[in-house]
Amino acid sequence: MFKKSREWHNIRPDEREIVARHMKNVPVKLGAMAKELGISVKLSSLPINVSGQISKTSGGYEIKINRHESRQRQRFTLAHEISHYLLHRTVIDDLGGTLKDNVLYRSGAEESIEYEANRLAAHIVMPEDVLEKAYLEYGEQLSEAAIEHLAEQFGVSKAAMEIRVAA
Ligand SMILES: [Zn+2]
To answer: What is the CA(138)–ligand 1 centre distance, in A?
Structure first.
């Protein structure tokens, strides 16, 4: 019933294997996923209107996450930046090596790029098969409390879970 994102098949096969392996259990361990992909992740004091950014460094890529945002929000931002890494490395290059996302996940890159990163991020933090299993336990009609519980289980905001189960 739940689907993979359409971006899934655009990920390089060796990297897709790494990502898939980390999506077997929730909450998905995004830090470990990033590390295995060779990305360094730092919690940083970014400006208040910036949620996260990804930069090319001499040795690879580095993601910075705004330490002042909520934990769930930080998780989604990390999944969003990992998605930029997986899908948009040439875009990051074209932007001079840094893609910076404001609080609306707008970066100055084309809007379609941001939709792709958001869809893949939602897929990564709410893997379809784990979600399917959890969903079946609640039956077809998802109550408010059930959605809250699912959100907690997956480490996402209630709003993010609502969008995923309604899709
Ligand atoms: Zn973005």
So the answer is: 33
Q: What's the pLDDT band for 99 if we cut at 50, 70, 90?
A: very high
Domain assignment present for 153: no
Q: Is 79 part of any domain? A: yes
Q: Is residue 47 part of a domain?
A: yes
DSSP state of 142: -
Reported as a single tens digit per residue, the pLDDT across 73-95 is 999 999 999 999 999 999 999 99
Given a cut of 80, whether residue 66 has pLDDT beyond it is yes
Report the alpha-carbon distance of residue 3 to residue 127 in Å, rounded: 9
Number of structural domains (the chain) is: 1
Q: Does residue 33 fall inside a structural domain?
A: yes
CA of 32 to the centre of ligand 1 (A): 20
